Amino acid sequence: MKDLVIVFPGQGSQFAGMGKKWFDGHESVRDRFAQASDIVGYSLADLCFTAPPAEVTRTRYAQVSLLVLSYAMYEVMTEGRKIPVSSMTGHSLGEITALAAAGALSFEDAVRLVKVRGEAMESCVAEGGTGMIAAVRMPVTDVEKCVEDFNSAGHTVQVANYNAETQTVLSGTVDDLKGMTAHLEDRGAKVVKLNVAGAFHSTFMANALPEYTKALDAVEFAEPAVPVYSNVTGEVYESPEAIREALAVQLTSPVRWSAIVSSLVERKAAVWIEVGPKQVLKKMLTGAVGSGEVYSLDEEPEQVHAVLDQLVELKKREPGLVGLFLGAAAATRNRNFDAEEYDEGVVASYRKLQELAKLDPEALTDEQKQTALDLLLTIMRTKRVPEDEQLDRVESILRRTGDVGLRTIAGALAT
């Protein structure tokens, strides 16, 4: 089975007229636009389709518009079928879209949160005098060394995005960035001035934190239905509270996109689909994911649906959660030669798993899935399988089936 990763874009992918074909072609998209418009107090359709182009590029409007459109596109893509998503993530703002799509927060809460986020960040931008540049064709370690050397003279340039090994985005004052550009170009880098309104993902956004953290505190976060990777750590979120904390930190910390991509490549992610306007992330991912296939839903909808149809069919041929548990139970080496313990902990539990395996995999309740995992853990503990091996096997199965809601039970391995 090919691991499927869904990625959502951040600010910079917006443009006047974005999403018009999705809005015109799908009632569900129109419904989400209307629902979000009621929350934010203005018409997103008018903003995206008829307002002057400069309006949709404003931070307060761009972020909400991108969230709503990307989320609505994801709903269209998944309508009427359960696609086998292995992981989700997003770039900057797109991380919130990923969390909403994974069920970690409601669509309504996501809209309210991003409205505050965009407005608070724009208020920092209004203070003026800051911006961003991208250093390309230079290894990230060399860029970091250049920043360190340049800042030793009293400047405050900061790394904002680790996008790729040879693409690093920097934030700072306009004057500092002019000097930084010359410093980098003298050492062989190509520097691109970014068309953004401020110094995002840096301490220049600190004044946005009070309002934004207040909005975060009002959101009820839940365990994502699939693993979601954090921009702050580059790793999978482990708890709802970790989500709240990292989203606050994200405003003033660099986006560790390259770390996320590296982690997913190591996990053999084979298919990547960008869900949102344009194909900014597709371009960034192409060449960075080895032999992985990369698609843009906005630019290649027919190809994306064909790929998803194939993945859904492949998923149907695979053993379900309980089948994989049975395989893991049989494959682990026994280190317990007490016959009575073995009969009670292994044989009896295995037979109960076999009974669960007779049920329709698609109809299993969460309680039945948890029972199946408890039985597998009982078998492995009785066989005295090392705890790290137990964890590796369970985590691998849960990633494969998408049942990451059972991770809380996996956390009880040592008990």
UniProtKB/TrEMBL annotation:
Keywords associated with the record: Acyltransferase, Transferase
EC code(s) of this entry: 2.3.1.39
Annotated catalysed reactions: holo-[ACP] + malonyl-CoA = malonyl-[ACP] + CoA
SMART domains named in the record: PKS_AT
Domain Malonyl-CoA:ACP transacylase (MAT): 7-310
Domain of life: Bacteria
A molecular function (GO) term: [acyl-carrier-protein] S-malonyltransferase activity
Pfam families: Acyl_transf_1 (PF00698)
Protein's GO biological process: fatty acid biosynthetic process
Record-given protein name: [acyl-carrier-protein] S-malonyltransferase
Source species: Saccharothrix carnea
Organismal lineage: Bacteria, Bacillati, Actinomycetota, Actinomycetes, Pseudonocardiales
